[in-house]
Amino acid sequence: MSARKRTVVLISGRGSNMTALIAAASNPDYPAEIVGVISDRANAAGLGIAAARGIATKVISRADHSSKEAHDGAIDAALVSFGAEIVALAGYMRILGARFVEKWLGRMINIHPALLPAFKGLDTHARALRAGIRIHGCTVHFVTLDMDDGPIIAQAAVPVMVGDNEDTLAARVLKAEHRLYPLALGLVAEGKARMEGGRTVLAHFADDADNSTSVVMAPDPLREETDLEHLARITP
Ligand code: GRF
C-alpha cells in the first residue's frame, strides 16, 4: 500500500467523530493516519480522548489571536508542522476564512448531520422534525467557500421514526456518522474520491457491475435501523 495520508482532525467539542476516525486509522491497512488533533476550545472533551490514544493535540483558541485571519494562520501553521495532507473537520464550530479554505481546497472535508443540500447550518435535527421529513441522515463533503455547500463525497440515510424527538433522532444520525466518516476519509485518502472542477469525482470501482458503488457511498442505508415495509405501514 502507498503511504498513508497524514490527516489532522479539527474539533471544538465532544469528538465522537474524531474518535471514530482514530479507531479506523488504528488499522494499519486504513489509508489515512491521524497525526494530530487541533481544537479551538481548551475544554473540548475530544482532546482528552485523542491524548489517551497517543495522538498529538493542540489548542489554538480564537481569543489568543488578534483577528480571524491570525487565528486561521495559526491553525494553518500547525497543520504544516503536523505535515498534514488532509484536514478533517469533525464538529469544528468556526467558519474558516476564504484564504484558509482556498489553500486546503480538495484536501479538507467535513461531516454534516443532514442529507445535504437539505438543512445546511445548525439545529438540523430539530428542523428535520419540524419539516416532517421521513428520511434524514448525514453527509461528508469537501469544504468550499460557502458553508455546507461543497461537493458531496458520501451520505448515509436513517429513518425518522414516529415519536422521535431531537435527541433520539440525533443519536440515530450520529451512529450513521461514525460509520460514514471513516468510509469517506478512506475514499479521499486512497484517491477514490477527488474534487475536480467543483465536483466530486469518484473512482470507478472494479466490482461496480452490480452497482455496489452506491452501497459503498451510503453504507447500510436504513437496513440496520428498521424494516422498510414496517416503516411504510406505520408512516402516516
Ligand atoms: C456531529 O453531529 C457532526 O456532524 C457535526 O457536529 C457534530 C460533532 O459531534 N458537524 P462530535 O464532536 O463528532 O461528537
TrEMBL record:
Gene: purN
Segments forming domain Formyl transferase N-terminal: 5-185
Catalysed transformations (reactions): N(1)-(5-phospho-beta-D-ribosyl)glycinamide + (6R)-10-formyltetrahydrofolate = N(2)-formyl-N(1)-(5-phospho-beta-D-ribosyl)glycinamide + (6S)-5,6,7,8-tetrahydrofolate + H(+)
GO-annotated molecular function: phosphoribosylglycinamide formyltransferase activity
Amino-acid positions noted as binding (6R)-10-formyltetrahydrofolate in the UniProt annotation, renumbered to this chain: K68, M93, R94, I95, L96, N110
Organism: Mesorhizobium escarrei
Pathways per UniProt: Purine metabolism; IMP biosynthesis via de novo pathway; N(2)-formyl-N(1)-(5-phospho-D-ribosyl)glycinamide from N(1)-(5-phospho-D-ribosyl)glycinamide (10-formyl THF route): step 1/1
Protein name according to UniProt: Phosphoribosylglycinamide formyltransferase
Top-level taxon in the UniProt lineage: Bacteria
Residues binding N(1)-(5-phospho-beta-D-ribosyl)glycinamide, per UniProt: G15, S16, N17
